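Hi there, hope your week has been kind to you so far. It would help a lot if you went through both lines with me. No rush at all, and the record is pasted right below:

***
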Amino acid sequence: MNRTLALCATLALTAACKQQTTTIVAAPAGPAADALAPAPPPPSPGGTPTSLPAPTTSTLPAGHPPLQGAPDLSPLPAGHPAPATAVGADSHADEITIQAPAEWAEKPPRPMLYKVWTTPAAEGDAAGGEVTLSFLGAGVPLELNVQRWCGQFGLDELGCKGAARQAPLQGSAMPGTVVELAGTFNGGSMGGQGDGPKAGQKLVVVELVGAEKRWYFKLIGPEKTVDKWKPALQALAAAAKAP
């Protein structure tokens, strides 16, 4: 009888243990089981998490503005004006109308020189002359340029006063002044006969004063050649018209 009771007690205890073990392992399903977080990125060799690269794309969505700091390489719409560019000498072509003599050969413009021509040499001269057309702002006084031209002939301020002859341009549409210098030309900026000192040279410059600019018609070369083409230079400047 006692053995039977002991056996029953043992079986009851075993069944209770099995029921408790099953309850611990099989956790009830719930919302937490459906919201599992993704696994973190694998650690880098140094032990810190490795950052994932940001997603990139070679093209932006339609209508998306360009990224800050990046050039906008998208094509312009049909009929859109081209972007503005640096202003060059050719943009001033409509500001003065001139007609150079047919005997003058036009050459490519140079820096600071709007137009360049060469003239035939006068009889007895080994070389012809050069005519250039340039301009400066209306506020630049003529005397500053006269001093510079005198320096090209090796003249100081005192010598310039006696050597540079000035006279008003007759019959011109705009106020004008004719400046003349002669002697040994040492060359200088603004182009023209810049191959070293040359004796027996002459310079004639006609300044025209416009509303916004001062135009300079400059003839440089051997004296006879310059004397030959001086009337043509003055006529060219006198006939020049601003729009």
